[in-house]
């Protein structure tokens, strides 16, 4: 199936590894021109070279910028005043409990997982509307719909973004601009490796035991792959997904117990 996004320009936040990179690769495979982002310029150069080699027919660029810094977001917007596809993404805050959620922790969570995405959307959305095409996909978390106590900071900030984008989606659907959210759970990425290490330390167990415990909590009895996640992102960015907006797509191996 041709997704109809060849030549579209896609900016993927936090895309030097993990879920962001998976989305970049999937969009590149569909012929979209890719703009990578991250804080580590050397790492971005390596990823940029890899994508250029794998997909020689497309344009691949990158910008080293910290999404939480206003001046860096300004640099991004100056370098790329118009894009067609935006995939928002950023690392979540550390797990913690109520006693850890002091004011600065709350502000930091919003500064990482809410404000940057909204400000980029705010800047790029009008030109998408004028051109009659735009795809915005936010990488959030399954815990937006199934909150977990220790992930309260991440859940709250990502839920704020979900609400904001739902509010926007109805206003721009007539312009063929869609806003959707991908809700991952247990995708095999560096973030899961971090969480696995944390479980090993907390429980005093080895890696194999920790990984088995995690997979047994997934209905599919395995981790999801980055490729599966990227493919879902690419579809939401496609011409065929023009009638899908304001939605939350869970990628959790069938683990969500709710009805809606």
Describe this protein with a few key phrases.
single chain; 260 residues; alpha/beta; Rossmann fold; 2 domains; seven-stranded parallel β-sheet; 7 strands; 14% strand
Question: Would you summarize the structure shown here?
Answer:
With 260 residues, the chain is of the alpha/beta class. The protein has 9 helices and 7 strands; from the N terminus they run βαβαβαβααβαβαααβ.
Characterise the protein shown here.
With 260 residues, the chain is an alpha/beta fold. It folds into 2 domains: 9-186 and 226-251, Rossmann fold (3-Layer(aba) Sandwich); 188-223, no CATH class. It is 46% helix and 14% strand. The chain is built from 9 helices and 7 strands. Strand 5 (134-139), helix 6 and strand 6 form a beta-alpha-beta unit. The radius of gyration is 18 Å and the shape is globular. The model has no long low-confidence stretch (mean pLDDT 96).
Most strands sheet: 7 strands, parallel
Number of domains: 2
Q: Give the number of DSSP strands.
A: 7
The structure class reads: alpha/beta
Give the SSE order as H and E letters: EHEHEHEHHEHEHHHE
Helix count equals 9
Spans where pLDDT lies below 50 across 5 or more residues: none
Radius of gyration, in Å, reads 18 Å
- Helix proportion range: 40-55%
Straight-line N-to-C gap? 29 Å
User: So, the CATH homologous superfamily of the largest domain?
Assistant: NAD(P)-binding Rossmann-like Domain
Report the portion of residues in β strands.
5-15%
Give the overall shape, derived from the CA principal axes: globular
Overall pLDDT metric: 96
Side-by-side strand order of the widest sheet: 3-2-1-4-5-6-7
> What is the CATH C-level name of the largest domain?
Alpha Beta
Label the CATH architecture of the largest domain: 3-Layer(aba) Sandwich
The name CATH uses for the topology of the largest domain is Rossmann fold
């Amino acid at each position: 199936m041709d997704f109809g996004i060849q030549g579209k320009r896609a900016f993927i936040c936090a895309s030097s590894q993990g879920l962001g990179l998976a989305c970049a690769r999937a969009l590149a495979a569909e012929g979209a021109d890719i703009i990578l982002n991250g804080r580590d310029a050397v790492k971005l150069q390596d990823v940029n070279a890899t994508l250029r080699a794998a997909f020689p027919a497309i344009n691949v660029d990158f910008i080293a910028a910290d999404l939480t810094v206003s001046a860096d977001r300004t640099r991004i917007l100056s370098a790329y005043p118009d894009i067609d596809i935006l995939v928002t993404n950023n690392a979540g805050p550390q797990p913690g409990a109520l006693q850890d959620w002091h004011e600065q922790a709350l502000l930091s969570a919003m500064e990482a997982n809410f404000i940057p995405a909204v400000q980029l959307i705010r800047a790029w959305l009008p030109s998408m509307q004028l051109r009659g095409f735009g795809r915005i996909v936010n990488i959030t978390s399954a815990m937006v719909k199934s909150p977990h106590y220790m992930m309260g900071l991440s859940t709250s900030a990502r839920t704020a973004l979900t609400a904001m984008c739902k509010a926007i989606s109805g206003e721009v659907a007539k312009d063929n601009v869609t806003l959707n959210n991908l809700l991952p759970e247990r995708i095999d990425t560096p973030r899961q490796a971090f969480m696995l290490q944390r479980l090993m330390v907390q429980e005093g167990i080895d890696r194999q035991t920790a990984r088995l415990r995690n997979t047994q909590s997934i209905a599919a009895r395995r981790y999801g792959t980055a490729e599966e996640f990227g493919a879902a992102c690419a579809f939401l960015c496609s011409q065929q997904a023009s009638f899908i907006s304001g939605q939350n797509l869970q990628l959790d191996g069938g683990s969500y117990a709710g009805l809606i």
